[in-house]
Amino acid sequence: MNDVVIYHNPDCGTSRNTLAMIRNAGIEPIIIEYLKHPPSREKLAELVAQAGLGMREVLRQKGTPYAELQLDNPALTDDQLLDAMMAHPVLINWPMVVTSKGVRLCRPSEVVLDILP
């Protein structure tokens, strides 16, 4: 796979910075605006696993229904957290970048440099 894919939110400064870093490396990525086109449940679980993260690590709290949904409850399973993210894509903390070198949650943006081809 030579394609670089970014799950992107154009309203997010970190996501815009990550996209700029990819383009500054001479790469035009495949851009998936995840709020308009969220990944499937299976794809999201796969991306999180490939990035070596847990579901809680990709949960966005700020500007989301995180508190109202009581997602800080430690009794919630990964499946329940995944259900919440599928119902409310704004809960997914992105940008996530996929390259032939791996998958990373690019927070901070500079993390993308580790996986650019």
Q: What structural class results from the helix and strand content?
A: alpha+beta
* Terminal residue distance: 10 Å
Work out the strand percent: 5-15%
Helix content: 25-40%
CA radius of gyration is: 14 Å
CATH superfamily: Glutaredoxin
Q: What integer is the average pLDDT? A: 95
CATH class term: Alpha Beta
Domains (count):
1
Basic shape? globular
Verbal overview:
With 117 residues, the protein is an alpha+beta fold. The chain contains three helices and four strands, in the order βαβααββ. It has helices spanning 13-24, 41-50, 78-87, and strands at residues 5-8, 30-33, 96-99, 102-105. A four-stranded mixed sheet has the order 2-1-3-4, sandwiched between helices. The longest helix has 12 residues, at 13-24. It is globular. The mean pLDDT is 95.
Please sum up the structure shown:
With 117 residues, this protein is α+β, with helices and mostly antiparallel strands. It has helices at residues 13-24, 41-50, 78-87, and strands spanning 5-8, 30-33, 96-99, 102-105.
Layout of helices and strands:
Layout: E1 5-8, H1 13-24, E2 30-33, H2 41-50, H3 78-87, E3 96-99, E4 102-105
Parallel strand pairs: 1-2
Antiparallel strand pairs: 1-3, 3-4
